[in-house]
Amino acid sequence: MKELSHIDEEGRARMVDVGAKTESQRTARAEGSIKMSAETLAAVERSAISKGDVLAAARIAGIMAAKKTAELIPLCHPLALTDAGVEFESDHALPGLRVTGWASSQGRTGVEMEALTAVAVALLTVYDMAKAMDRGMEISGVRLIEKRGGKSGDWKRE
């Protein structure tokens, strides 16, 4: 079993020291989805939700969340992101939305958590803005798609 990097010799949580690591370009992409009624999806697509433009608000929320990941997730390093974004795709077969988020940085540690946080918060924002119409929405499948850079190299979900 691989040794846990966030636990010291005495079993206490700690932030990993990345000071000796080499800086490199780091990128990560994540995805997730939210299932909703066809009627709710149509209202989101038409910007007909009473709270406003769901996708615009969720996009901004996801980007803001990526930038604040270190404040939300214990032991994450604060990073200077060079890029972060969120995109939405309607999926009428679900019915619902598929969300992709990404983050990039030139640094000593990866940006997987920033991409995942962007997706999770974007999905939660969609739920919040549309819940008056559909409380039965279901968020699922938040996961890393790929990461690039760093000592461990590149990784892509099969």
Explain how this protein is built:
With 158 residues, the chain is an alpha+beta fold. It has one domain (24-150): Alpha-Beta Plaits (2-Layer Sandwich). The chain contains four helices and five strands, in the order βαααββαββ. It has a five-stranded antiparallel beta sheet with strand order 2-3-1-4-5. The longest helix is centred in the last third of the chain and has 19 residues, at 112-130. It is elongated and about 55 Å long. The chain starts with 23 loop residues before the first strand and ends with a strand.
Structure, briefly:
The chain is α+β, with helices and mostly antiparallel strands and 158 residues long. The chain has a single domain (24-150), classed as 2-Layer Sandwich (Alpha-Beta Plaits).
Could you name the key traits of this structure?
4 helices; Alpha-Beta Plaits; elongated; alpha+beta; 28% helix; 158 residues
Please summarize the sheet with the most strands. Answer: 5 strands, antiparallel
Question: How far is the N terminus from the C terminus?
Answer: 23 Å
Q: What's the arrangement of strands in the largest beta sheet?
A: 2-3-1-4-5
CATH fold annotation: Alpha-Beta Plaits
What oligomeric state best describes the polypeptide chains here?
Answer: single chain
- Tally of individual helices: 4
Order of helices and strands: EHHHEEHEE
Q: Averaging pLDDT over every residue, what do you get?
A: 93
Shape, principal axes of CA atoms: elongated
Q: How would you classify the helix and strand content by structural class? A: alpha+beta
Share in helix: 25-40%
Could you name the ranges where pLDDT drops below 50 across 5 or more consecutive residues?
none
CATH superfamily: Molybdopterin cofactor biosynthesis C (MoaC) domain
Query: How many strands appear in the DSSP assignment?
Result: 5
Q: In the residues, how many domains can be counted?
A: 1
How does CATH name the architecture?
A: 2-Layer Sandwich
Quote the beta fraction: 25-35%
Rg over C-alpha atoms, rounded to the nearest angstrom: 17 Å
CATH class: Alpha Beta
